[in-house]
Write a structure and sequence with these properties.
mainly alpha
């Protein structure tokens, strides 16, 4: 896997996390807690919620499973061209003795088929990558939601209003 692909995956996960980060809870000290007490309670609740859920909102997002393998496409216009030329020359030579014309027709057809097949493989690979990225974003959002619930429950229990 090349560095650009890894960077793209990390960027995708970070961008997926932005909506969750934008939903940080708003905490109000409903019982007149001081700023120092509020900060201590927030930190202790952060530790507690992290321990309960196994999710750390301060850590960078990580994939829960590796991205799909994206091997280089096996088809190509060149391979199709060569294979088509060989097949075409054999068919043309056997059918009417015109090896050259059969090779030319076979090469053209094989090249087109190879290019189409390569394009299809590339498209399928991109769809698998997109699906994987969406799945990772959903997993991150769910884990963040679970953490936020625990964090809010902890703070509410200590006398804060959390929205």
């Amino acid at each position: 896997m090349n560095a650009n692909r890894i960077t793209g995956i990390c960027l995708g996960l970070l961008l997926a996390a932005l909506p969750a980060a934008a939903q940080e809870p708003i905490i109000y000290p409903a019982q007149g807690q001081s700023n120092d007490q509020t900060e201590r309670d927030k930190y202790e609740c952060y530790q507690w919620a992290k321990g309960q859920t196994g999710f750390d909102p301060m850590a960078p997002p990580t994939a829960t499973q590796p991205p799909p393998q994206t091997d280089a496409p096996t088809a190509s216009a060149g391979k199709g061209l060569v294979g088509g030329a060989v097949a075409g020359s054999l068919i043309g030579g056997i059918a009417d003795g015109n090896w050259g014309q059969g090779a030319a027709i076979g090469a053209a057809a094989g090249g087109l088929f190879g290019a189409h097949r390569k394009s299809s493989q590339k498209k399928q690979s991109q769809q698998e990558q997109d699906s994987w990225e969406q799945q990772q974003a959903q997993i991150y959002a769910q884990r963040r939601h679970e953490y936020n619930r625990g964090y809010a429950a902890c703070l509410t229990g200590r006398g804060y209003t959390v929205n």
